[in-house]
Design brief:
The chain has one domain: S-adenosylmethionine decarboxylase (4-Layer Sandwich), CATH 3.60.90. 26% of the residues lie in helices and 40% in strands. The chain contains 3 helices and 6 strands, in the order E-H-E-E-E-E-H-E-H. A 6-stranded antiparallel sheet has the order 2-3-4-5-1-6.
Amino acid sequence: MVKVGEHIALDFLGIKQNYTAKFFGKIIYKIAKAAKVEILNVSQHKFKPQGFTLVALLAESHMSFHTFPEKNIISFDFFTCAKISPSVALDILKTEIKHKRIIVRKFDRSTVGLYDDIYSTPGQKKILCC
Protein backbone atom coordinates (compact mmCIF):
# COMPACT_ATOMS: atom_id res chain seq x y z
CA MET A 1 0.00 0.00 0.00
CA VAL A 2 1.25 3.45 -0.90
CA LYS A 3 -0.33 6.25 1.09
CA VAL A 4 -0.73 9.45 -0.89
CA GLY A 5 -2.70 11.42 1.70
CA GLU A 6 -5.75 11.92 3.86
CA HIS A 7 -8.94 13.82 3.14
CA ILE A 8 -11.58 15.06 5.56
CA ALA A 9 -14.92 16.51 4.46
CA LEU A 10 -17.12 18.27 7.00
CA ASP A 11 -20.67 19.50 6.54
CA PHE A 12 -21.92 21.84 9.27
CA LEU A 13 -25.72 21.75 9.41
CA GLY A 14 -28.11 24.13 11.13
CA ILE A 15 -26.03 27.27 10.63
CA LYS A 16 -27.98 30.32 11.77
CA GLN A 17 -25.23 32.92 11.41
CA ASN A 18 -23.69 34.43 8.29
CA TYR A 19 -19.92 34.41 8.58
CA THR A 20 -17.78 36.99 6.79
CA ALA A 21 -15.02 36.41 4.25
CA LYS A 22 -12.62 37.78 6.87
CA PHE A 23 -13.74 35.08 9.32
CA PHE A 24 -13.00 32.29 6.82
CA GLY A 25 -9.66 33.85 5.95
CA LYS A 26 -8.61 33.91 9.60
CA ILE A 27 -9.80 30.37 10.23
CA ILE A 28 -7.86 28.99 7.25
CA TYR A 29 -4.63 30.39 8.70
CA LYS A 30 -5.49 29.07 12.18
CA ILE A 31 -6.02 25.57 10.79
CA ALA A 32 -2.86 25.79 8.67
CA LYS A 33 -0.79 26.73 11.73
CA ALA A 34 -2.24 23.89 13.82
CA ALA A 35 -1.75 21.35 11.00
CA LYS A 36 1.73 22.71 10.19
CA VAL A 37 0.96 23.18 6.50
CA GLU A 38 2.06 26.02 4.22
CA ILE A 39 -0.53 28.19 2.46
CA LEU A 40 0.69 29.14 -1.01
CA ASN A 41 -2.36 31.05 -2.25
CA VAL A 42 -5.93 31.85 -1.19
CA SER A 43 -8.77 32.58 -3.61
CA GLN A 44 -12.29 33.52 -2.63
CA HIS A 45 -15.55 34.49 -4.25
CA LYS A 46 -18.83 35.89 -2.88
CA PHE A 47 -21.86 34.79 -4.89
CA LYS A 48 -24.98 36.88 -5.48
CA PRO A 49 -27.47 36.81 -3.94
CA GLN A 50 -25.72 34.59 -1.37
CA GLY A 51 -23.00 32.05 -0.75
CA PHE A 52 -19.25 32.13 -0.47
CA THR A 53 -16.32 29.95 -1.52
CA LEU A 54 -12.74 30.07 -0.31
CA VAL A 55 -9.99 27.78 -1.57
CA ALA A 56 -6.51 27.65 -0.07
CA LEU A 57 -3.77 26.08 -2.16
CA LEU A 58 -1.27 24.41 0.15
CA ALA A 59 2.22 23.12 -0.42
CA GLU A 60 0.72 19.88 0.96
CA SER A 61 -2.56 20.01 -1.08
CA HIS A 62 -5.68 22.16 -0.37
CA MET A 63 -8.48 23.37 1.96
CA SER A 64 -11.83 24.82 0.97
CA PHE A 65 -14.99 26.34 2.42
CA HIS A 66 -18.32 26.52 0.62
CA THR A 67 -21.33 28.19 2.22
CA PHE A 68 -24.98 27.57 1.40
CA PRO A 69 -26.88 30.17 3.50
CA GLU A 70 -30.20 29.25 1.91
CA LYS A 71 -29.73 25.71 3.29
CA ASN A 72 -27.96 26.70 6.55
CA ILE A 73 -24.90 24.62 5.57
CA ILE A 74 -21.16 25.25 5.54
CA SER A 75 -18.99 22.62 3.85
CA PHE A 76 -15.26 22.25 4.49
CA ASP A 77 -12.70 20.03 2.76
CA PHE A 78 -9.08 19.46 3.70
CA PHE A 79 -6.83 17.15 1.70
CA THR A 80 -3.23 16.64 2.75
CA CYS A 81 -0.49 14.50 1.35
CA ALA A 82 2.29 12.72 3.17
CA LYS A 83 2.07 12.27 6.95
CA ILE A 84 0.04 15.36 7.85
CA SER A 85 -3.45 14.63 9.21
CA PRO A 86 -6.28 17.01 8.31
CA SER A 87 -8.29 15.91 11.37
CA VAL A 88 -6.89 18.80 13.43
CA ALA A 89 -9.34 21.05 11.56
CA LEU A 90 -12.36 19.33 13.13
CA ASP A 91 -11.54 20.46 16.69
CA ILE A 92 -10.92 24.04 15.57
CA LEU A 93 -14.05 24.32 13.43
CA LYS A 94 -16.34 22.75 16.06
CA THR A 95 -15.59 25.68 18.36
CA GLU A 96 -15.49 28.42 15.69
CA ILE A 97 -18.69 27.64 13.75
CA LYS A 98 -22.03 27.61 15.55
CA HIS A 99 -23.94 24.59 14.29
CA LYS A 100 -26.53 21.98 15.21
CA ARG A 101 -24.84 18.94 13.65
CA ILE A 102 -21.66 17.94 11.80
CA ILE A 103 -21.36 15.24 9.16
CA VAL A 104 -17.77 13.97 9.08
CA ARG A 105 -16.29 11.96 6.22
CA LYS A 106 -12.69 10.77 6.30
CA PHE A 107 -10.93 9.24 3.33
CA ASP A 108 -7.59 7.49 3.34
CA ARG A 109 -5.99 8.22 -0.02
CA SER A 110 -3.83 5.20 -0.75
CA THR A 111 -3.21 2.78 -3.57
CA VAL A 112 -5.36 0.20 -1.79
CA GLY A 113 -8.20 2.70 -1.30
CA LEU A 114 -8.02 3.88 -4.90
CA TYR A 115 -7.92 0.32 -6.23
CA ASP A 116 -10.96 -0.72 -4.17
CA ASP A 117 -12.98 2.34 -5.22
CA ILE A 118 -12.30 1.92 -8.93
CA TYR A 119 -13.60 -1.64 -8.97
CA SER A 120 -16.46 -1.14 -6.51
CA THR A 121 -18.01 1.79 -8.39
CA PRO A 122 -21.05 0.58 -10.38
CA GLY A 123 -20.54 0.75 -14.12
CA GLN A 124 -16.75 0.64 -14.00
CA LYS A 125 -14.93 -2.06 -15.96
CA LYS A 126 -11.80 -3.75 -14.77
CA ILE A 127 -9.03 -2.79 -17.18
CA LEU A 128 -5.52 -4.10 -16.81
CA CYS A 129 -2.90 -1.59 -17.65
CA CYS A 130 0.71 -0.75 -17.17
